[in-house]
Amino acid sequence: MAASAGLSFVNRSDAVPIQHIYDGGWNYFVGGGVAVFDCNNDQRPEIFSAGGENPARLFVNSSRDDGDIQFAIGDFPEIKAVTGVYPIDIDSDGLLDLVILRHGENVIYRGQKNCAFVPAPSEWGFDGGNEWTTSFTATFEPQNDWPTLVFGNYVDETNPKGPFEACDKNYLIRPNGSAFAERTPLEPGYCALSMLISDWKRNGEPDLRISNDRQYYVRNGQEQMWHLSPLQLYSANDGWPDLRLWGMGIASRDITGDGLPEVVLTSMGDQHLQINQGNGVMTSAPYAIGTYSTTPYIGDDGRPSTGWQASFGDLNNDGLDDLFIAKGNVDQMPSNAIHDPNNLLIQNVDGTFTEMGDITGLGTTERARGAALVDLNSDGLLDVVVVNRRAPLEVWQNTTQTDGNWVAIDLNQSGPNGRAIGAFVELKLPNGRVLTQENTIGGGHASGTAAPLHFGLGPVDAIAIRVIWPDGGVSNWTQIRTNQIITITRDLNKSLIVTGG
Amino acid sequence: MLRILLSAVFIMPKIGFAQSLPEPLNASNFPTANMAEIELGQLLFWDAELSGNRNISCATCHHPKFGTSDGLSLGMGEGGIGLGPNRRPDPKNHPEQRIPRNAPALWNVGADGFTVLFADGRIEVDPERPNGFRTPLDDEMVTGFASLLSAQTMFPVLSPDEMAGHYNENEISALVRTGRITGPDGAWAAIAARISAIPQYADSFASVYPDIANGRQIDFADISNAIAAYMAFDFRSDGSRFDQYLRNEIQLSEDELSGLNIFYGSANCAACHSGPLFTDMSFHAMGDPQIGPGKAERFESHQRDTGRMRVTNDPADAFAFRTPSLRNVTLTAPYGHSGAFSSLERYLRTHTTHGKSLNSYQISDAVLPAMTVTKPDFAPAPNAADYSKIFNAAQNTKIAGGALQDDQIKSLIAFLKTLEDPIALNGGRMGIPISVPSSLPIEQ
User: Fold this and answer.
1) Which of A37, A68, A367, A398 is deepest in the core (most CB within 10 A)?
2) Across the interface, do B140 and A332 touch by the CB < 8 Å criterion?
3) Are residues B54 and B13 in the same domain?
4) Which residues contact B249 (CB under 8 A, 6 or more apart)?
């Protein structure tokens, strides 16, 4: 069966009640993030999109089950200068909060019931700084009830020698009880456009990956990885390579089936898929894998592409993860394609990827930035949200005709880190194949989702799940039924409580 | 009598000639001259004020001493000092790389038929586009430019390696690298602001363009319009012996006529080098050697120059380049899109072989002043210039081809020399200005 069989999307951008555009001057050439998350507990995720010089917007999902996607305008205090946004339940009250990245002071809005949001109380002690923030990631470290937040900054505009070779520091913020401690600078900074804390070596010690933009660090800089505890930058002695990219976004997912997450690092020209070989070694995927997507695949412009958000997800539920890459010219860079189509790269059974952005219509050529692959109408198919610079937000309803099964999994544990950030979910198929997803906060391009982990399964309908919880505790294998959204709750012993459906 | 006979034959190509002779070029093929605008354009053309670091003017790489080119295979733009083959890196501001393509001669670029500019045609007349042109900015392109040539003139100033400079070196290079080109905060406005700040220019623009006299600010399109007017006038070349021959004013020598017969006959050069401009304004993969850094951005590791394909995204256009005009070709060495050959004779020896001479190419045939380069000048491997793909592309080119014999090449060169124009030999109509309003030094 061809990868394209049945694949289809309907443009439902008009399901958003007003045109929402990420816009503004040079400070908003980057950024343009979107958060997709449920803030009214109806399992239909909302959209919160950065607006740059326009106000950020909350759109509340009013889709009916298995119906067409629909959104209503949500109430949110007017906030401008927003570059990106990530949902996270900071105080483990079961309600998602929003970490809002800005050109200027970052802010946290605390989630209330029914999608109401209020500024985080001052007792939280959050120092939002005053930098030009363009990336974020978070984790819950052992012994802490509250998360550790990391903010990645772009150009230091106070540096009179800038904007080039003038990248700002990044900051890490650890909790201090039920509040945040002072900021810890992470130096050197190389103009971070994406960060992701991930246990990429599966050794129980998550590290902080930072993808940096050579457009601004120019010479002295590279992709970075930090040990979190103690805070220490990976060096050549750790085998860390001197990789220099026009890094814009990180996607992470095990696509080789060995349980180790691969990463896609977006850039200008080649989009870099790195295969996790284990033991801390990542190698470039062969060019023939089909994800480099160096130049536009439609249109009459042969200049190199500019990649931003990258996201993995199984868009046709065939059991193989696919890859979406948001593309678009920075603004008016003559070196790069002006009309640069987004990539929808569908994985084939042999592990290669085939471009389907043209057939499905997803290959729009606006200046795309952030994006999300989330099931917006609870039909088991991942839909697509794309934020564009200088053009309206796009919503694409996945209408793929497929017999493929799926399951979507929310994690829950009592106490702090209730959403079990840092957990690995493994699904075992009857043929022994194991699908693995890590539950993370970060990556992409200024965009975060807090939605059930979606697994496409193909024809398989008998699966077992186990969870490696953030503290390393491993559950027993538990049979679950497919084609439903379920919540997996950690039990005192190694068993799992399955609810929902 | 012989001339008349041949002319008659050429009008009827079926009698043995593949292509008919063109009409002669004349003044009606060129825009009407406005001398005040042309004189303003001349000053701008020769003024390094247009470059980010105020160290290079249009004339640096398009100099009348070198046939309105620079005498180099690949130019040394921003960061070079000196002229022509004497150009060398400024030790205090070493160029990052060579310019990836040979600097094109400017003869007749203002003529009506010059509808495709740059070797890849990234600026061209394109009636299917809303504004009637293709440019690298596509629908972001500003308005106000008077001609295709004016639109073309707007782009070398944006190239960090050609004129703008790099990174934080100046306000223009910073704007370009941040991706800000149009609008009041863009690179073009920054250059226009520099020009506007020089009183002599402000006065000249006001006297040439009435709406500027009435208070409109000087836009970069005004600057490029004036430069285009200058180039169209100064580098008009329609007084060659060949034009005189076409006008039945002179006779050509036996050797020249022999070359003419090869050009329009057996070798069928005129299949592409057609019309009075000696170009079909179209693109052909001729299998010429590629040298230098290639058309690759800093984030690309290869050294390919896929030519037209990088513009159109059409694999059928791979390694195809626009047919260059041959007017004054004997004055515009080196030859080929990357200037791989300093000698016209050696170039012609390979040009018709559909890439079969690629393997024997020697970089010593090029004119490349010494400089530190991050990518080697000669790199035929697949991950670099990729000669195998250049060869493959040339196999699909439907040109009669076949290697030329020594006597044919000698005759062809004799014929091509008839395309020299006394005005071109003299370096254009207007010569080199004594000074420019910025008071910056002039490339003499």
Assistant:
1) A398
2) yes
3) no
4) none
Q: Are A359 and A345 within 8 A, CB to CB?
A: no
Q: Is B140 on the interface with A (CB under 8 A)?
A: yes
Q: From first to last of its 444 residues, what are the pLDDT tens digits of chain B?
A: 344 444 444 443 333 466 789 999 988 999 998 999 999 999 999 999 999 999 999 999 999 999 999 999 999 999 999 999 999 999 999 999 999 999 999 999 999 999 999 999 999 999 999 889 999 999 999 999 999 999 999 999 999 999 999 999 999 999 999 999 999 999 999 999 999 999 999 999 999 999 999 999 999 999 999 999 999 999 999 999 999 999 999 999 999 999 999 999 999 999 999 999 999 999 999 999 999 999 999 999 999 999 999 999 999 999 999 999 999 999 999 999 999 999 999 999 999 999 999 999 999 999 999 999 999 999 999 999 999 999 999 998 877 667 899 999 999 999 999 999 999 999 889 999 999 999 999 988
Cβ proximity of B300 and B348 under 8 Å:
no
Asked if B209 and B301 sit in the same domain, the reply is: no
Looking at CA atoms only, how far is residue B246 from chain A in angstroms?
Answer: 40
Domain closes at, from B204, B237, B270: B237
Determine, yes or no, domain membership for B76.
Answer: no
pTM of the entire predicted model: 0.96
Decide if B428 is inside a domain.
Answer: no
B168 touches chain A (CB under 8 A): yes
Q: Give the CATH number of the domain where residue B341 resides.
A: 1.10.760.10
Contacts of B311 in chain A (CB under 8 A): 300-303
Amino acid at A313: G
Is residue B434 included in any domain, yes or no? no
CB of B380 within 8 Å of a chain A CB? The answer is no
CB distance A332–B167 less than 8 Å? no
Q: Do residues B57 and B18 share a domain?
A: no
| Domain containing residue B36 | 31-69+104-237
Q: Which of B443, B422, B442, B432 is nearest to B107 (CA)?
A: B422
